[in-house]
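User: Before I run my own analysis I want an independent prediction to cross-check against. Here's the chain; please return only the structure tokens and, at the end, one sentence I can use as a sanity check.
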Amino acid sequence: MKKDDIHEMFRRLQAADPDPKGELDYVNPFTLLVAVVLSAQATDVGVNRATKDLFEAADTAQKMVALGEAKVRDHIKTIGLYRNKAKNVIGLSERLIADHDSIVPQDRDALEALPGVGRKTANVVLNIAFGIPTIAVDTHLFRIGNRLKLAPGKTPLEVEKKLEKRVPPEFMLHAHHWLILHGRYVCKARKPDCPACIISDLCSFKGKTI
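Assistant: Structure tokens:
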């Protein structure tokens, strides 16, 4: 995509949704971190259903450790990979207590050192919890980056790095929200809803629907 088209794309996305939000429910940075860890290979709706009671029982690292892995497992057993995720939730809670005085760090490397936390999870937490302009590349954003030729790449990291260079600075904070939501509800994987797309005239995707 050309520079002018990229700016116009984000201008329209911003006009349509000036203050986009992530769709995971949380009450503080810790519960956001846990929710994002649980969301791997799971839907946000499914995670929210599971975490409603979990976060009422444990909304801090100390409470999560006190709850214990078995009870965490019971709360999230409707989510894929729940056994390993329960282990990671307890593990990251223990590390937060031991290494960070129970406070979620505002640092990507420190976040990635926690059990179950990868680069995408770290970027989501930094962006949503702390207002740091990061690009969290999930399957939707990876598809959009390549389909629109906005930031073509063979890996999520490659797409992320290209987006960091191509997204205009004034749109960086919310850029990944707009693109993820656009990919989730409009530019869908199997059948993009091109007639409903507000940026279709800027898109050169050959598989457009009529």
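Sanity check: The radius of gyration is 18 Å.
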